[in-house]
Amino acid sequence: MSKSMMDEASPYDIFWELAGELRRSILFKLGEKSMKLSTLAKELDATVQEVHRNTNRLMDAGLVRKDADGMLSLTTYGRSVITQIPSFEFLAKNKHYFEEHTFGDLPMKFIQRIGALNNTELINGVVAVLERWKMMYANAQEYIMELMAQVPLDLIEPLVERVRQGIRFSYIFGYNTIVPKGRREILNKLGWQEYIRKGIVERRMCDRVEVMVIATDKHAAVLFPDQHGNTDLNHMLFGSDPLFREWCIDFFRYKWYASGSFDESRLKEV
């Protein structure tokens, strides 16, 4: 094999190194702090011989270095690689979920950060999903953000109650967003327009919403569409991990800045 062909194939060799559980553990431990071989073995509850053999392999792969004092640490390459592992872990854990769901209209830059969802919990069943949603409303202390393709009727009054208590609410609907019949009348009865006038509630509209996001200052959730691009309220990825909340808020803001004025007449009532 020519040198150019070997160089071309070399990026994929990393998967062989990551296939070993002990090698992955070594990388994550060294990602926390540098340490000597004996300390590393103790931290991993493994023999010095096992850790030595696997560490040498990681050094040969350019992922780990050892200084003159015998301290092991990650190289820049190694540190970069471990930031990508959560993406593979998330996809592997939710393989069956994504047999039925897609990333919808999610831009590539958010798919490339999908590892931020690794510490989420998959909530199953529409009743459980709605209960968790209400819990997010109840625990919010500063703000609620929602990117919605479908609005459940049961959530309208709990949401308005939190707005009444001073929680800021920002939401985005798409021209495809489905709202329950009677929604407008309920909101008018609860003084919705007054909250909009005061700036407590902000709203915008975009062409289409496929990936739904709910984010508060405490929790976040995302609902991906099914294989036909339809909203699926039976499954929700929920969590409080800061990286996940940041991912959801970033996606919400991405859609917010690409959205225009809200037009109630474009909404479809079902």
Any chance you could write out the topology, listing elements then pairs?
Elements: H1 3-9, H2 14-18, H3 21-32, E1 35-36, H4 37-44, H5 48-60, E2 64-66, E3 71-74, H6 76-93, H7 97-100, H8 108-111, E4 121-124, H9 126-139, E5 143-150, H10 156-164, E6 168-179, H11 183-189, H12 192-198, E7 201-206, E8 212-216, E9 220-223, E10 235-239, H13 242-257, E11 268-269
Parallel strand pairs: 5-6, 6-7, 6-11
Antiparallel strand pairs: 1-3, 2-3, 4-10, 5-8, 8-9, 9-10
Helix pairs in contact: 4-5
Structure in words:
With 270 residues, the protein is an alpha/beta fold. It has two domains: 3-83, Winged helix-like DNA-binding domain superfamily/Winged helix DNA-binding domain (Arc Repressor Mutant, subunit A, Orthogonal Bundle); 94-269, Endonuclease, Chain A (2-Layer Sandwich), CATH 3.30.870.10. Helices cover 46% and strands 20% of the residues. The strands form two sheets. Strands 4, 5, 6, 7, 8, 9, 10 and 11 form an eight-stranded mixed sheet that branches. The protein has a three-stranded antiparallel sheet with strand order 1-3-2. The longest helix is centred in the first third of the chain and has 18 residues, at 76-93. It is elongated, with a radius of gyration of 24 Å.
